[in-house]
Amino acid sequence: MNAAFTPAELEFQEEVRAFLAAEFPSEIRHKIARHVPLEKDDFVRWQKVLHRKGWAAPNWPVAFGGTGWTAAQKYIFAQEMAKAGAPEPVPFGMKMVAPVIITYGNDEQKQRFLPDILASNVWWCQGYSEPNAGSDLASLKTTAVREGNHYVVNGTKTWNTLGQYADWIFCLVRTDITARKQEGISFLLIDMKSPGIKVSPIYLLDGTPEVNEVHFDNVRVPVENRIGEENQGWTYAKVLLTHERTNIAGVPRSKVRLEELKAGAAAAPDGQGGNLLQDPVFAHKIAETEIQILALEYAELRALAAVSVGKAPGPESSILKIVGTEAAQRIDELAMELAALQGLPFVPEQFEDGFDGELIGAEGEASAMLTYFNNRKQSIFGGSNEIQKNIISKAVLGL
Amino acid sequence: MDFSFSDEQQMLQESVQKFVHRHYAFDARRAILASAAGYSAEHWALFAELGWLTVPFSEADGGFGGLATDLMVLMEEFGKALVVEPFVAGVVLGGGLVSALGSPAQKEHLLPELMAGSLQLACALYEEQGRYNLASVATTAHVSGSHFLVNGTKVLVLNGPVADALLVSVRTAGSERDVEGISVVMIASNTPGIVRRDYTTVDGHRAAQIRFDNVQVPVSALLGQQGAALPALQQSVDRATLCVCAEAVGALDMLLHKTVEYSKTRQQFGAPIGSFQALQHRMADMFIECELARSIVMMAAMTLDADVPEAQKQRAVSAAKSRVGKAARKVGQEAVQLHGGIGMTDELDVSHYFKRVTAIDSMFGNADFHTARFARL
């Protein structure tokens, strides 16, 4: 057993650092530092830089443009990306639909869709959840009725993150309404420009329209856009959800945020002449969080090591989702406590590109409470943490 | 021992319930939030007419009686409806300072107007370096002839954008964290040298960051004895703190109630989610938090009304604020989580209750601050 990096891995780490220092656009770096929300163009621009380097999709097989990295290299890459503050690629194409196309799509579909995902020419969004099918995803009601060489799709999908930007959507639809609920579902790829699709924004509690409802009114979808067999979509979707969960632990990002939190605490007056990092209660809370993330990091490394010797990510990945989101949410709580009164102002204009007025609060304070609110979604999306516990109970513990 | 409400308290409660039922539906509240002032002038006039603005004041000051238990009854109902009118910031806190520090002439001048709803006050007490410490006052007031010259910056001045006058804690002697040497001056909002950055808070209230640049204030604007204002500041903030605690109790009850109701109707896996034992236990835990919060807030209100040493009152308020902060975190998060995605939306009132109770934890000292203060006292 050995968790240290080899000389070759250390060399790779240097290569990643040099690349990020030279190629991560300073405009995007600046926006992130100022807590300015990134726009579609920012994401696409950065992903194209990664693509030119050949690093857009580390998890894909080499034949489709993956990097062929070891688990350690992937881990190093993710860590350096987080340290540099570089955003992860938008997951819907790269990390969610692509593994399904690679595993279950036919050759034509692979050729048609994968290169544009890799090059970030096409923006994807997810079409899984419905207003009445959340945790119980298999109860979904959107129907696809076969008419010749087309399916006619009707229904509503919800919680489509950044769906307002999307060119394509991958959907679970019901193709057999008589079958048992998991068995009549198919996996369709749908062009968002198809007649009959309407996207309406959902405003979240922090005022952002980052999710949407997508309505399908007699939308005609060519049968060739179906992945795999009709009525077998649930099997494919489960693979996607497991992948989604392994990407959700967010350890490198949490470690960086924890360091920022410590720096912020060291700079924050405690009102008694010292700083907040010297406050034993606050320092204790930070330490507990740091220990939790350390345990999570090694749990993730163990999972990565298992995947690298050819095992599929198993139900253990539910641990990563639960603990990863809880750790991130704990950091949100501590950042909010750090900001104290200065977390209360709602000043979105302060986080617009080009704002040059006087900032309210120290760096990031005025976004701390909003971030806390927004990130409550983490324990809900990607299969709520309750559903993850059901998976552990059933699939791991055999209950 | 008697935990029941008096006849007057029952009448007060019913009168607020009637108002809320008639005027404070969720969409009506949304319209108030979107308005320029951020509160309804008609509602404010009605509050005055119904006598609610007199509740914080003693009979000697011309008020309803000034009992903390009365305020608790009123505030819990405000909390249930997420009332945004600036009652705590302007009347309880601002009025409380005038009542505690003002000369008979100042009181006679200010309190009737305040109770009539024609005067809006705001208190500028907190500073960036001071966190929650009211004694950390770097804003200075130097005597210059018959005037003070005030310089400094105050953060989170609740009701600052609409106030006619500001009650400002200033240092007239000593150094930054000295408990002596703190005074309170009243400054008209339109005085030259006041630079205000107005904003809405995350939970829809109005506040401002205010800078004082050589603001000239007549010496007669001093409230109370020069350099000896800290005890009155703490006392007034403690009463305001009790008020937001009671407000939180009302809001937390709504979060619990709405979550339980939702769990009975939301169907997943062929059954209402409220039929799952794992979720039932979590709602039982929410209920426990709500009941403990309610209990400790009653304790604090009764202690404020009792004839006991000031330190005991401070300890009671800190106990309540600490426990309410804990409940706000737990019940707020669980309400959103059990609602799922819909609990995250602006459209549903649950997220608005969640934001309010979270904001309450962060103001007037959060749970950690008050736990430490409780331990110290």
Summarize the structure.
The complex is a heterodimer of chains A (399) and B (377). With 399 residues, chain A is an alpha+beta fold.
CATH topology of the largest domain in chain A: Butyryl-CoA Dehydrogenase, subunit A, domain 3
Helix content of chain A: 40-55%
How many strand units of chain A?
9
Strand order of the largest sheet of chain B: 1-4-5-8
Q: Supply the CATH architecture of the largest domain in chain B.
A: Up-down Bundle
Reading the helices and strands of chain B in chain order gives HHHHHHEEEEEEEEHEEHHHH
Q: Report the total helices of chain B.
A: 11
Number of strands of chain B: 10
Mean pLDDT value of chain B? 97
Short key terms for the protein model shown above:
heterodimer; A: 399 residues; alpha+beta; Butyryl-Coa Dehydrogenase, subunit A, domain 1; Butyryl-CoA Dehydrogenase, subunit A, domain 2; Butyryl-CoA Dehydrogenase, subunit A, domain 3; 3 domains; four-stranded mixed beta sheet; four-stranded antiparallel beta sheet; 12 helices; 46% helix; 13% strand; B: 377 residues; 52% helix
Q: What does this 3D model show about the protein?
A:
Chain A has 12 helices and 9 strands. Chain A has 399 residues and is of the alpha+beta class. Chain A has 3 domains: 7-89, Orthogonal Bundle (Butyryl-Coa Dehydrogenase, subunit A, domain 1); 123-233, Beta Barrel (Butyryl-CoA Dehydrogenase, subunit A, domain 2), CATH 2.40.110; 248-396, Butyryl-CoA Dehydrogenase, subunit A, domain 3 (Up-down Bundle), CATH 1.20.140. In chain A, a hairpin with an 8-residue loop joins strand 6 and strand 7 (211-222). Chain A is globular. In chain B, helix 4 (68-81) crosses helix 7, helix 8 runs antiparallel to helix 9 and helix 9 packs antiparallel against helix 11 (367-376). Helix content of chain B is 52%, strand content 16%. Chain B is built from 11 helices and 10 strands. Chain B folds into 3 domains: 7-116, Acyl-CoA dehydrogenase/oxidase, N-terminal domain (Butyryl-Coa Dehydrogenase, subunit A, domain 1, Orthogonal Bundle), CATH 1.10.540; 121-228, Beta Barrel (Butyryl-CoA Dehydrogenase, subunit A, domain 2), CATH 2.40.110.10; 231-376, Butyryl-CoA Dehydrogenase, subunit A, domain 3 (Up-down Bundle), CATH 1.20.140.10. At the A-B interface, helix 10, strand 9, helix 11 and helix 12 of A face strand 6, strand 9, helix 9, helix 10 and helix 11 of B.
